What does this fold into?
Amino acid sequence: IKEGIVLVDFWAVWCGPCRIFSPTIEEIASEIGTKAKIAKMDADKNKITSFKYNIQYLPTVIIFKNGKPEYRYIGMQSKETLMNAINALQ
It folds into this structure.
């Protein structure tokens, strides 16, 4: 996340909304090209990172620019919302 724009989807295997939201993240990843990197992080397997970014609800999406969190979304979001946030950081 140190360079450029990175969208990180914090999720967990047991999280129903996370599974429903996953195809949206996959669509963004396939459409975004080189504008941003898209990553998924299992909050249960990465507890230190989840604690560092105060992840309390899943799914949570944080969009970073050059290592700095710029946008945080809790719960499922539309593809348009996330794409607009990425585009705003260009």
